[in-house]
Amino acid sequence: MDQVLLRNYLATVYEFPTALGPLRVSLDGDVVADPSALPEFLLRPFAVLTAYNPRSMLLPRKVNESRHVVLRDLLILGCYRVEQCVGFEDEPDSTWREPAWLVHGMDRDEAIAFGRVFRQNTILLGRNGRPELVVTDPTCDDVGKTIVANWRIRT
Question: Any idea what DSSP says for residue 19?
Fold first, then answer.
């Protein structure tokens, strides 16, 4: 995977809905010795999926929105609990924001399959207090290749 793209993925800030209010995190944190010190939400299994801008190709807003609704509908038909979340750059002059779906309890292989179907470079998985960036586009790297990172809580 291109190192600039990987750095951008690791620095992306995700805003997740939780019972205590929005939780902002990125994947560029330090190793956490005690995962139980993390917010409870990050200890549960989840996937973050989007249908926006396949293979990093910018698509018109209406096309992205239509693809995103189809993804949500398929997830709901699969009996998943789905909530809106967003990824964005934490730069003062940046306007990039990409809507995504937070999918609670999704299996790794199924999440990878959704990433492949919607032509995403990667998907994000949360497992046992560790984020995993998983390649789903064979033009980036081997499908299933996993970059294990560390959560960084953003304020």
Answer: T
What's the rounded Cα separation, in Å, for the pair 141 and 32? 27
* CA-based nearest residue to 61, from 24, 12, 91, 95: 95
The Cα–Cα gap between 24 and 1 comes to: 25
Per-residue pLDDT reduced to its tens digit, 46-101: 999 999 999 999 999 999 999 999 999 999 999 999 999 999 999 888 888 999 99
Q: Give residues with Cβ within 8 angstroms of 108, minimum separation 6.
A: 47, 125, 127, 134
- DSSP assignments along 25-41, one per residue: EESB-PPPS-GGGS-GG
Measure the CA–CA gap between 23 and 18, rounded to whole angstroms: 7
Please determine, for residue 41, whether its predicted confidence score (pLDDT) is greater than 90: yes
Q: How many CA atoms lie within 13 A of 59 on its CB side?
A: 18
Q: CA 65 to CA 83: how far, in whole Å?
A: 15
Instruction: Write down the pTM of the prediction.
Output: 0.96
